């Protein structure tokens, strides 16, 4: 770093002092905190994004959002050139930047990192960073801080992409780095045309009258509802009513996280909606769940991320079985590698269902960055968390294979061509950068129409095992170290044996604990054959966590 660069950095960074006595961690998906604490963090992540762009010679994304958290919180996360999450190798750098106590230390850390990573600060390449924010009012000033961060690195340009869903920003980064147009118009155009294509390819006679009626979407009073309102004008073949599209308080009694955790109707829904297909987004529209309002109560029947995954898996498996049928000459000697990626939170009944379809099911720790990486190892990889984060990834090689089939009249049957065209449309409809509630919703809707299914029929695919989630406040959640995709605790010693002894008391009992990546708690998840048993197991394991880790209440 030369003197001019150093002095620009010292000057601008001194205007963004870090909060006192707060240790910031990059967490499961970026920095998150009360918005009033975040200006310096966002500024510093702006610096990091500019360096990442210089290093990769590609566009990087910065998204300002705290997703499903309350409106007074905010957060920031980085999208890498592929449109996926920031490479995990850079997370420690992000944390040391965010926690640097003053501008001098900050510049030292930055200088060391630039040398270590051999980043040319005054090379030919001008860094480019796309910025997006959700609807939180605090996003306006935080976006300015991010711009200042990017501008502090000489030859770095920040481009404000506007108020967006998180997946839109990721999609834009990916599109731009592939040399494609990356505006919202292009994104909506891709979604609506691939949706139309899937509907046109529905076999004759498959649509059952009565299944295609109204869908009601809870937009969590966030950005997703707003975007769906604009997108729906481009969609034929889908009757959708959007509620909670921004007039109420973001995430308060609404949204995918609320619906999934509380299992009650979100604000604005009620008895008049019984029997109607309903869906819910979270505040930044990267989570999607469906639900049905129950008669005579405020309870809902939840159709969660696991069930969305089951629907996608069933549909894709059916398509692949046609494609892989012997007889015709196909270009690919081996069967398609279809992989299913879940976390320990997936309901055991969903895992059994997927295995019974003959599918390969693998597990990773919680968090999109882990699931996405694993799913990318397959020709087609489907990943979902029960909470509604997920997507379907197609490898580049597999897409080429599908292009060959769909265009090669002499080699393949019309049926196979149709399947290939359908799969290509799915790959365009479902966001390849990151899980996306808008595109996920359209794929669910297209598949239901293809199969001629109602939400009730879909929900019958399997029945969830009763489960219970609890959180325990402990002295230091980092004392919990897990292994095997978070299913086993290796530290503190002895606790796993004690958990196992509890599990053994219950029929179909399954239970694990893990430190949260977004809150200062340890989470407990338990499953058993009855609700009473799942509750009992969860509470006894929570007590163990308390004993082994020390409660903050004592
Ligand atoms: C974040 C993650 C989500 C994960 C959740 C777990 C992303 C984009 N989001 O919301 O995947 O399920 O954290 O939260 O990765 P926890 O660690 O507090 O249980
Ligand atoms: Mg979210």
Characterise this structure:
By secondary structure, the protein is of the alpha/beta class. The chain is built from 18 helices and 19 strands. The strands form five sheets. It has a five-stranded mixed β-sheet, sandwiched between helices. Helix 1 crosses helix 4, helix 2 crosses helix 5 and helix 7 (184-200) packs antiparallel against helix 14. The longest helix has 19 residues, at 305-323. The radius of gyration is 24 Å and the shape is globular. The mean pLDDT is 94. Bound molecules: 2-acetamido-2-deoxy-6-O-phosphono-alpha-D-glucopyranose and magnesium ion.
User: Termini, distance in Å?
Assistant: 51 Å
Structural class call reads alpha/beta
What is the count of helical runs? 18
Share of residues in helices: 40-55%
Biggest sheet descriptor: 5 strands, mixed
- Please count the beta strands (DSSP E, at least 2 residues each): 19
**Amount of beta strand:** 15-25%
Which outline best applies? globular
- Name the ligand types: 2-acetamido-2-deoxy-6-O-phosphono-alpha-D-glucopyranose, magnesium ion
Mean pLDDT figure: 94
**Rg, Cα atoms, Å:** 24 Å
